[in-house]
């Protein structure tokens, strides 16, 4: 997958207003807790820990500690951030797929994404359909012609990957059997054993499987024409309005990955410090070099822009929410 490293794109960033030095002084001698809504290891943990190591460089005098708060497909971690004191000393990272959970009013969601103090995002989260070469399907068109249900690996019911799979199946009228409960690269291992034939997830997390020659990207679930060049776009297969609305939501989520946010009500002056610091981290040459070594793509946006995109994604008509509920429930 083509890595879009910081270059000309930086000129397109909407930068936060410069933070006053006195506002930055607030953080001196204090401890900032960075919550990651997954367990140790994996993509979110890698991004969160790398960002946390560089934040003190641009918020001088602050000590940053990482706290993993996994559970319920990022819901527990997001709830924890949301309920924290709005003093600027608790922020963190969670999955954009929580937009689905809020829209369908999933049990356990105690947050309102529209009210978070958005600090910024580090990367795109391009979704893709990964097809095992052992499946016998040479292209996605071959998959569409299959008569029986196709086995897809997925993380737990209600997770972003599960919902993406259901949405893809509904939008493209694909007959699938989702096998939930896979974590990490367990789905790819199951493909190697020929137990499942495909999975839907972030392209970045599945790229190594493709590089190793075990599978290929059958579809890109992203509106960004530069993501996964040469891979067919899911949108070209969607014919009805319901499917188009669902896929448009997935495309929006693909644009805002690896988010950093704080609880509602962080004072504007302190939020400006954190927004500016995160953008400075995203431009730091050493940070970018480390990210490249870890195979972490970087394509940032400011907190202001993320805030706008999150609110737009939550502003869905009743028909789209009903279709999402049906897809997420497998009905």
Short note summarizing the structure:
The protein has 331 residues and is α/β, with parallel strands linked by helices. The protein is 40% helix and 17% strand.
Q: How would you describe this protein?
A:
This protein is an alpha/beta fold and 331 residues long. The chain is 40% helix and 17% strand. The chain is built from 13 helices and 11 strands. It has a 5-stranded mixed beta sheet. Helix 6 links the parallel strand 6 (150-153) and strand 7 (176-179). The longest helix is centred in the first third of the chain and has 16 residues, at 43-58. The chain is globular and about 65 Å long. 47% of the residues are buried.
Average pLDDT score: 90
Q: Which spans of ≥5 residues are poorly predicted at pLDDT below 50?
A: 1-17
C-alpha-based Rg, rounded: 20 Å
Reading the helices and strands in chain order gives: HEHEHEHEEHEHEHEHEHEHHEHH
In the sheet with the most strands, the strands line up as 7-6-8-5-9
Overall outline? globular
Sheet-strand content, in percent, reads: 15-25%
> Main sheet, how many strands, which sense, barrel?
5 strands, mixed
Task: List the total number of helices.
Answer: 13
Descriptive tags:
331 residues; alpha/beta; three-stranded parallel beta sheet; 11 strands; disordered N terminus
């Amino acid at each position: 997958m083509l890595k879009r490293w910081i270059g000309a794109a930086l000129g397109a960033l909407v930068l936060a207003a410069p933070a006053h030095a006195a506002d930055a002084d607030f953080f001196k001698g204090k401890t900032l807790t960075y919550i990651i809504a997954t367990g140790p290891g994996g993509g979110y943990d890698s991004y969160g820990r790398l960002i946390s190591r560089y934040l003190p460089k641009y918020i001088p005098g602050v000590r940053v500690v990482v706290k993993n708060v996994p559970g319920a497909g990022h819901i527990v971690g997001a709830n924890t951030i949301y309920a924290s004191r709005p003093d600027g000393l608790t922020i963190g990272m969670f999955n954009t797929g929580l937009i689905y959970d809020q829209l369908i009013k999933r049990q356990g969601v105690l947050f309102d994404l529209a009210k978070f103090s958005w600090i910024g995002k580090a990367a795109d989260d391009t979704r893709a359909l990964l097809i095992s070469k052992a499946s016998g399907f040479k292209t996605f068109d071959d998959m569409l012609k299959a008569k029986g249900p196709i086995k897809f690996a997925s993380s737990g019911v209600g997770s972003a990957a599960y919902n993406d799979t259901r949405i893809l199946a509904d939008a493209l009228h694909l007959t699938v059997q989702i096998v939930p409960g896979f974590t990490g690269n367990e789905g790819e291992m199951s493909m190697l054993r020929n137990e499942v034939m495909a999975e839907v997830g972030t392209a970045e997390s599945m790229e190594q499987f493709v590089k190793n020659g075990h599978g290929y990207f059958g579809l890109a679930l992203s509106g960004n024409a530069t993501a996964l060049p040469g891979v067919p776009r899911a949108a070209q297969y969607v014919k009805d309005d319901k499917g188009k609305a669902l896929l448009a939501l997935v495309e929006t989520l693909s644009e805002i990955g690896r988010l950093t946010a704080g609880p509602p009500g962080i004072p504007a002056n302190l939020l400006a410090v954190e927004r500016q610091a995160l953008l400075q981290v995203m431009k730091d040459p050493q940070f970018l070099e480390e990210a490249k070594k870890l195979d972490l793509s970087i394509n940032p946006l400011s907190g202001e822009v993320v805030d706008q995109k999150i609110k737009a994604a939550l502003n869905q008509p009743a028909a789209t929410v009903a279709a999402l509920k049906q897809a997420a429930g497998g009905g």
